[in-house]
Design goal:
3 strands; 44% helix; three-stranded antiparallel beta sheet; alpha+beta; single chain; elongated
Length: 124
């Protein structure tokens, strides 16, 4: 009786390991970018939940950056936050870009944008 072995060869195992390792490396670069985006989104929602319709944009910006400092968000700068007047309050728009080095001179770039209405009874 002859037994036939089956399974992965060492070469195929190393190839699978390389693909999985590269996927994990990409994930380690992208995950902090998206965690920061959700922290920004959460800070904007909590600011909207506290706001009344007559909020001062400079105070709202200070309050937003206090929340972002607590979440260790460093990508959003003051130039990335804009306010526009709407009926019953203000709309806060945050647009920013995050650039992370991937391999050598190859970068991963994320463009993030979110808006939140600061009106009395807002919380959308």
């Amino acid at each position: 009786m002859k037994y036939k072995q089956s399974g992965m060869t060492l070469t195929s195992f190393l190839m699978v390991l390389a693909v999985v390792g590269f996927g994990l490396y990409i994930g380690m670069k992208l995950l902090p970018m998206y965690q920061e985006y959700y922290a920004v989104k959460s800070a904007m929602k909590s600011l909207a939940a506290e706001s009344t319709g007559d909020v001062d944009p400079s105070r709202a910006m200070e309050s937003l950056f206090k929340r972002l400092d607590m979440n260790y968000s460093e990508s959003v700068k003051r130039d990335n936050v804009k306010f526009e007047r709407i009926d019953g309050g203000w709309r806060m728009n945050v647009n920013y870009e995050v650039r992370r080095n991937m391999i050598g001179n190859l970068d991963v770039v994320g463009n993030f944008s979110n808006s939140q209405d600061l009106t009395s009874g807002s919380g959308n």
